[in-house]
């Protein structure tokens, strides 16, 4: 059997995980929007900008992602296929999901949407990061600032997320129990799903993803 077949199958799996993860990320974020109980930090900003501009959240997400990607230039960051795909795919799937999932009014339904959104977001993160096609624009901003300033990843990430949450809230974005639940749960969930979806090397052997803490690998839409 040709050695190209295993490599082709390996690449196909990685590509499937990349785009399945991005699509699921957009859909899971839309569920959090429909729950009305709070959003991920960056989506608080996206929602606030959407409220102010009249643009869809997905379109705002795409525009902000592209703007953040421009900040990679002075930081000397190099985008990968996953980086560019992040900008193009997540916003589209978020808007598509928002178009078919109505607002929830019953408390039980809202809580269920919130829980599903957080868990599926963790699964999406595992799928996308394990594909190893490069970080999302916002993660690249975080790691780029870390390398350029010498400030720890923890401090840089916290400062960025506080800034976007406060700005988004002032603009009209939703901050609530869902925001807190996301902040607490996304790390452990991402680590779990990174292990579940880890892609072994094409030549076989042990997976190289999902070792250690995923502090640098958390996908921000």
From TrEMBL:
| InterPro entries for this protein | YczE/YyaS-like (IPR038750)
Annotated membrane-spanning segments are 54-73, 80-101, 107-130
Query: Which keywords fit this entry according to its UniProt record?
Result: Membrane, Transmembrane, Transmembrane helix
Pfam families under this entry?
Answer: DUF6198 (PF19700)
Superkingdom as given in the UniProt entry: Bacteria
Question: What protein name applies here?
Answer: Membrane protein YczE
């Amino acid at each position: 059997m040709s050695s190209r077949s295993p490599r082709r199958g390996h690449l196909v799996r990685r590509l499937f995980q990349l785009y399945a993860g991005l699509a699921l990320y957009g859909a899971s974020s839309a569920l959090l929007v429909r729950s009305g109980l709070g959003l991920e930090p960056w989506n608080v900003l996206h929602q606030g900008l959407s409220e102010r501009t009249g643009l869809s959240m997905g379109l705002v997400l795409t525009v902000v992602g592209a703007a953040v990607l421009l900040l990679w230039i002075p930081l000397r960051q190099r985008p990968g296929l996953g980086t560019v795909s992040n900008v193009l795919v997540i916003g589209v799937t978020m808007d598509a999901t928002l178009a078919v999932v109505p607002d929830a009014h019953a408390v039980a339904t809202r809580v269920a949407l919130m829980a599903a959104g957080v868990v599926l977001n963790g699964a999406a993160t595992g799928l996308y990061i394990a594909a190893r096609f490069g970080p999302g624009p916002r993660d690249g901003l975080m790691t780029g600032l870390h390398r350029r300033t010498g400030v720890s990843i923890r401090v840089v990430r916290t400062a960025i997320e506080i800034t976007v949450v406060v700005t988004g809230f002032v603009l009209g974005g939703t901050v609530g129990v869902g925001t807190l639940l996301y902040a607490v749960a996304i790390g452990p969930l991402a680590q779990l799903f990174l292990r579940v979806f880890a892609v072994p090397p094409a030549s076989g052997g042990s997976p190289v993803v999902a070792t250690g803490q995923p502090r640098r690998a958390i996908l921000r839409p």
